[in-house]
Each structure stands twice: as structure tokens, then as C-alpha cells.
Amino acid sequence: MASERKFIAENTRRVLLKEYLMKEVTRAGFGGLDVQRTPMGTRVTLITECPGIIIGRRGAAIKNLTRAIEEDFSFDNPQVEVQEVDNPNLNAQIMAEKLAFALERGWHFRRAGHSTIRRVMDNGARGCHIIIAGKLTGQRHRTEKFKEGYIKFCGEPKIQDVDKGYAVAKLKPGVIGVTVEIMRPNSKLPDEIDVTLPVEAAEKFPELASLMEKKDDFRPVELKSEVVVEEPVEEPEAEPVEAEAPEAEEPKIEEDENQGGEQ
Fold first, then answer.
1. Do strands 127-134 and 142-149 pair parallel, antiparallel, or not at all (unpaired)?
2. Mean pLDDT of 82-88
């Protein structure tokens, strides 16, 4: 039980650190957090949209952040690294925070949802799924979903290829939760298979081609095949057959019955 409690305490501390950094770097655009243990201490990689705001003038802001991580969360010798996100429109956490901020400014939830999903898909994402839950139009709780493109909801592709972000919008009627799921542009599904022709495979992998040729199992197939035109065969002319003349019938001599009687 001691080891299990240790793992739970470590993960709880990381979740609390993530929530703390989300509040501290809201202006810079929080995009993600990665905590790794090293022999020299703890490496904290912070992914943001504007790294200059976190670093501050002459590094004063990042020094205060490092001191707070070491004292408040008891991390050994933390080393904070700030990394700029490549495309903020494909980061689920940043888009969730922007959508929540739009709702707080008074945007209608349908307008904000469709605008966000269009922005994500225009940047090349394979799919996007947005869930907005809370008191949207009245005193009763509602859940609205917006989906476009292709997205996975379970299995290994869900874990590896789908980026998920969550944010909260605080309005007068109550709190609205925003969940954004984005399927990355370079994600490849298990059922997507590329078939290579033998000639192209031999060009790309010459060592494989030589190995297969030794075993006489590999014979490259030519793509262009010669078209063989068959010449028409002349049939021999049939010899004319002479028609035989019909045989003339012998005339029948009718004997006169009366002639024989007269004699």
C-alpha cells in the first residue's frame, strides 16, 4: 500500500502544479505541461503561446515561478523550460481557453462553437469535437456538442492521436465547462495501408531486392508491357465444285393395248 500511496501522491502533486500554472500563465496562453525526473533534479517543460510573457524582463518572472514550484510543491531542484507551441490553433488546451474567454465576453455559445471548430479545421486538423456544458440559455443545465471531420472516441488512436483540452467560463448564471478534442493532421489510423509496387520497393530498398533475388522469390514486374498485334491468318480459298447435270430420264414407252389386240 505504501507504493500505491506514493504514486497517488505524486500524481496529485502534478495535477495541483498544472492547475497552479494554468492560473499563473493565463495571459501567455497555457498549452500543456510536461514533468520529468532527471538525475540533476526535476525538469518542468511549459508549453505556451507567448514565451516572452513567462520569462519576463531579464528572466525575473521565470525565477519567481521556479521558486514557487520548489517551495510550494516540494520539487527537487526544478528547472523550468519554456517552449513555444508550433500552431496554437491545433492545441486543444489553448483553443479551449480561447473559447471560454469568448463566452465570458458575451458571445453566443453556438457562434463561439462554430467559429472555433472552423478555425481548427482550416489549419489542417483531421477532426474536431467541442462540448459546451452548463446554463447556456436558461436555469436548466444543457450540453451542446459540435463535431466536424473524423475523430476517435476510444482505443489506442484516441490516446495517441487525439489532443484534449479543458477550460471553465465563469458567467452570471453559473459556470460553463468547455472541452475541446482535436485529431492531429499527421495522425494515421491502423486501417490506412499504402501498397508499394515491386519495382518501387526495389528502388527504395535495394538490400531487400538483392536478398529476394538470391532466393529466386523476387521478380520485378515491368509496368509497361508490349502490345502484340496478331496478323490476320488468310484462309485457303475453297475449290469450286462443278455442279453435276441431272440425268435424263428414259422415256417410258406406253404400249397400246389396242395394238396388241388387233394382231
1. antiparallel
2. 87
